Amino acid sequence: MKHRVLVTDEIDPQGVQVLRDHPDILVDELPTLPADKVLASIGDYDAIIGRSATRISAEVLRAGKKLKVVGRAGVGVDNVALDAATSLGIAVINAPAGNTIAVAELFFGAVLAFLRKLGTADQSMREGRWDRSALLGSEIKGRRIGIVGLGRIGGEVAVRARAFGAEVAAYDPYIQPARFEALRVERVEKLDELIARADILTVHTPLTDETRNLIGARELKLLPPGAIVVNMARGGIVNESALTEAVTSGQLGGAVVDAFSKEPLAADDPLRLLPNVFLTPHLGASTVEAQRNVAVDVCIAVRDALISGELSRSLNVPGGDTPEWREIQSALLLATHATAVGRAMLASRGTKAVSGIELACGTSLLSFRKPLLAAAAVGLLQDVVDDQRINLINAVSIAEARGIRLSSADTAVAGDEWQIEVSVNGERDSACIAGIARPGAGARLSRIERYKVDVQPRDTLIVLTNKDVPGVIGRVGTLLGEAGVNIAEYHQSRLEQGGDALAAIAVDGTIDEKLRARLLGLTEVRSVSVVRFGNAASGGQS
User: Choosing from 3, 160, 197, 234, which is the catalytic residue?
Assistant: First the structure.
């Protein structure tokens, strides 16, 4: 299967080559297109990769009927309608690490230029002056640098700030104390406390509803007199009107700004008129190395998403982008498979409307409940919801929109540390399925309802209940053989001799309704559920 990818906004050639090198990917490389041209052509593509110049609106995403992935060669995804992509099951992938060093180096280059008045010095020299006495600067050493956001870039700034002899503290409620300790950065519990102590305040967070205008007039008034504010993250995190006022009034010593709420910055913007403000035109990632890095990173991630359904780098997959993601691939498959089995069993008993899913897991999987629950939702909805791609990205929101309750236990289940238990609930009935999914060992079902089994869910699974009497296995096997169905695994389980029994039969190929009816027609057979895993087996793109 060939995948078509539209590459725009002048992505570095080394990144594009990653795509071209794969035999199943066809690349169309075009310059930045007007919005109407993007809208008109997007329906032909499985993926689009660009930078910030091309806006990927909700309208564009809806028009992309084949679209599976949006790649952003950079950190921010402000130009992508992320909520719409999530609801449509389209992965949004960025390259958060590739420009880390470039931004951290720009921070110190710009701050040093501001403190040492290098811009003014250069201009005066070119104008034939020698203004040495008027260009007395100051040093970074001994200053208190307050970092808002101790992620990749904030961490690199912290490391370099210590080399300059600065005191470093940071505020980030989403970062564990261990990272502060590893970086030798003081952890400040409250933002206001950090601001009140900072000689240089710098923000390194994404622009979200939570961080928009995070540093406004009230916060700027908390800064010590003569403090400097630096924004190299996203325009809008620091309120620019309040910043202009604080610098103009002399409350602040100045500002260094590389990111603006409206870009390009208007020619008459008040910030341009202030002598103690150092401005750069969003140069954070503008190095040859950074552009190459982000291009290669995002193209690798888009390639893997298209070819193998690898979604760990997607911003809108719950629990993605973690080092442990590869370790839980079998667990994600198991959650999907187990739920599909439970759904099929309820349907065979006449319960088609599912009201909820309850998931529990062992100690090694407890921190991955969100992606596991998303995978369970895939197993519930796959092949049920018409005209929609169902995957880890949108399964939870679609399930909840249909009134299906999704919940996961806060405490680990007893038993194997890699165990998963899924209860698929109807209004008056439920089916509980359990399994084990150790990293690298694949997924195996270990319990269906009360019956212990040991079977790998693959291709098609028949779950058959019967009376525990001699000859049942032979008659079932003969019937399947006559139909040309090959049995991969046959596991029979019973609660007591002569009572009820259950068979979990993994077979190659498909079981149609006619063959299921013939199985159900065997005298000793009480119920037959057939689960065709198909795309549900991947939990990925449909």
Answer: 234
